[in-house]
Each structure stands twice: as structure tokens, then as C-alpha cells.
Amino acid sequence: MEDYRRLTVDTVRRGLQEGRFSARELAAEAIRVGEAQNQASGVFLSFTPERAFRAADRIDAKVAAGDEIGPLGGVPLAVKDVIMTAGEKTTCASRALANFIAPYDATAVEAVERAGAVIVGKTNCDEFAMGSSNENSAFYPVCNPADPERVPGGSSGGSAAAVAGGYTPISLGSDTGGSIRQPASFCGAVGIMPTYGRVSRYGLVAFASSLDHIGPFSRTVKDAATLLRTIAGGDPYDSTAARIAVPDYPGDLSANVAGLRIGIPKEYFAKGLDAAVGTRIQAGIHTLEAAGCRAVEISLPHTKYAIASYYLICTAEASSNLARYDGVRYSRRSASSGTMRDMYRNSRAEGFGPEVTRRIILGTYVLSSGYYDAYYRKAQEVRSLIARDFAEAFETVDAIVTPVSPFPAFKLGEKTSDPLQMYLSDIYTITGSLAGIAGMSVPCGKSPEGLPIGMQILTNHFREQTMLNLGHAFEKTGGFEG
Ligand code: GLN
């Protein structure tokens, strides 16, 4: 099928309505291309052909009857394998859940299918979404579509590569400390972490509950807006999903951005930022200025404590959330189990990889009596200070623009031996996560070696519309190409 790899939501809908292809043909092509390349790309952990064809046939019947097909009608979509899809494997890229079949659909999954999307497969990721390179998958790594020797970023590496590499026009990922924005930046896709509570977490396997988000990947800002609109909103199954009306993000995309004030935090352009990335982001800021935005320097003074506080809070929450994988209620049970204690110990030791194990140990330690006040409580206090930095900044600016990652995609294996180096790469995304605000990565040109670079646009709680409008204006002026 010509141009399958460049399709967007609009071109799919148009093609279906004009009868140039059927939803079934599209689904078949998505699965064919995905399967044919998977040995090399590592993007998918499983395909869901029956589910896909069932959904596609429903769309084709609607097209034949002249009925409305929904905002995502017939569009192939990939889902990160930490998001539940009823009756399909949901492994979290972990040996512990290698054969786990999800008993129900995540609310976001239900929502995309109601909007007509065709789920074709589950994407590879870091085990339980812990990582920045996708190399913590228990099964196989993902290659960056721009350079197969490099990582796609993580933890939603498969979902980012699915979109950027031409496998599906849109996908769902999860972001706890940057796991949508950073792989979007590394692969050259649009990726959004919505405001905490904007999208239901029901059916997202918990890593760090106070930081977890489901969010979209796409090739255009408009598609991200459409997908976000579909999945946003309150949910009786998730009391943290805010019951705030969902704006018509795609409908209001073209609102004028002239006059918006853009904060440029000086702490994000200091030592450690790769020169090529700095140059591209500065150029991106100039593009926004040319569109009429006013850039002003701001300060987010507690940025330097973000990584330490994030890795205390997320490991604490992870150690608690992952206690459920005991080999009894969930997860594989070790075959070599004598006593009950051995059964727990062996099941967990065999099921979890080294990074997950490290985080459970760290998290258990920071929550233990005697250390709780010194580490966990302190980290929560710092989190409040970081949130206050943003709250103060948003009193004077409408959005904040920064790099997504200090450097473009690194080589597979380059950072695996040094977890601390890997943690440090999250510096620009983690702050927004701790504050619970909205953030997105938009493509912002390439490094001299041809590697994609993403620009981060952050806006205050529930101000996704402003973020999308800026991203859209940027895309229209050719900012994506740089
Ligand atoms: N890289 C970060 C971590 O390893 C973020 C992961 C995420 O957002 N899921 O925790």
C-alpha cells in the first residue's frame, strides 16, 4: 500500500471515505509491516489480529452504510504493553507477566476503540516502564528508526518507534518521569504527557501511581490533539481522573499564539546540555518568537533536586505497587518452590529483571521506619517546592519551552552499565512530572548526525490547549524540520 508509513488520522479517514482502501486492508498492512520488520525493529511484543479485524470490519460496515466512523475511524493504533487489553497478553515487558492475559480493558483502550481506532498490537517497553532506553525489556530491545544502532528512548520506546518508524499512525504510551516525551524526542514523533488526572489510569499497570499518565504519540500535533481528546475525561474507575470538561483540542488548534508569553528556564540551558540540542531548541524558540510569542527568561530554582526526589518517590511507590506480584494472585510462580517463603522469593527473583529489582530494594529502603522521614518525606517536601517553582512561573508566562533530553538518542549499550547516568538523562522531563503539569515533545529538527531532537512545551494544569496550539503553530512554520 503506497504511503502506508506516512498516514495520519485525516488521511486514513479520507482514504476510507473515498474508498481507496478498507479498514481491514489497513489493519492487515499494519500487521504485515509490523511482523515483517519486528525481528529487526523490536517494536512489538505481540500482535492482536483478531481484535484488529473485528474492529476494522465494524468500521468498513459503517463506511458501507454511510454512517459516521468516529474521530479515529479505521486508524491502526499500537498500545504500550503496560496498558490492559482484555483477552490479550499484557506483559509489561516482564518475565513475571510473560503469559498474563488482561481481564479487562483500560478506560483509554475502551475510549480509542469507541472512537473507531483499530488496535493492531502491543508495544515493547522497559520492564514495568522503568527506564530511559527500552533496554530493560525482558524480551528484546527496540531500535531507533532513525539509526538502528541507537536506542529509541524509554520507557515507551516501542510506541514511539511504532509511530516514527511507520508502523502505526498513532499509539498510546505511558509517562511517569518522561517516558512519552523522551522517546518521542529520540525518534522524531509528537508525544504528550497530559496533566496528572486528565486521562484515566484505570487499566494502566501501576509503576508510581502519583506520577503515572497515559498519553498519545502521533506524527502531527493535530493527531495528538484528536487522540488526547478521545482519552481525556473523568472515570468512575479512577477517582484521580478529573471530572473537568474536555475541550475540543483539535477543533481549537489554530487559535492565534501571537502574544503568548514563553518562559525559558535558565537552569535547563546550563552545563550538561549537548551543543547541537541547545542550538536546535534556541532556533525553535526563535520560530515561536517569529509567530508572535514573547520569550522571557525565567528561573525554576529547585530543578537541581528533581532527579533525587523523583527517584526516591518513584521507587517508594514502585516497591509498594509491585508487592502484588507474589506468584499467587499475579505473575508466574517459580517451579522450584519448597516453603511458602521460597515460593515468594523465587517467583519474584525469577520474574523481575535487575532494574526492577533495584528499584524495589531502593523503594523498600526509603519507606522503612527510620529512613522514611529522612528520605521519603524529604523528597515529598522537595516535590512541593518544585511544584511551587512552576506555579510561580505560570503567574507570568503561558508556557515554558525547554529541551526534552540533554542529548539525542545514544547507542544501544552505551549507558546500561551505569544506572546513575541513565537516571541523569531524565533531568528535563522529571520536573514537570513531579509538578503534575502538562508537557509535550515536538520534533525540532535534527542533530548533525541526523538524529531527531525534540522540544518540550510545558503548560499549567489542564492547559493542554495552549500547549497544542503552540505545537501546531510551530509545526506549521516548518519548525518540525528545523
Ligand atoms: N526514565 C524514567 C524512569 O526510569 C521515567 C520512566 C517513565 O516515565 N515511565 O523512571
Word description of this protein:
The chain is of the alpha/beta class and 482 residues long. The chain has a single domain (1-482), classed as Amidase signature (AS) enzymes (Alpha-Beta Complex), CATH 3.90.1300.10. The chain has 15 helices and 11 strands. The protein has helices at residues 9-17, 23-41, 49-65, 107-114, 157-164, 181-187, 221-231, 275-290, 306-321, 340-351, 354-367, 372-393, 419-424, 427-435, 464-476, and strands at residues 44-47, 76-80, 118-123, 170-175, 190-193, 213-218, 261-265, 294-298, 399-403, 438-446, 452-459. It has an 11-stranded mixed beta sheet with strand order 1-3-2-4-6-5-10-11-9-7-8, with helices on both faces. A hairpin with a 5-residue loop joins strand 10 and strand 11 (452-459). Helix 9 (306-321) crosses helix 11 (354-367). The chain is globular and about 65 Å long. It starts with 8 loop residues before the first helix and ends in a 6-residue tail after the last helix. Glutamine binds next to loops.
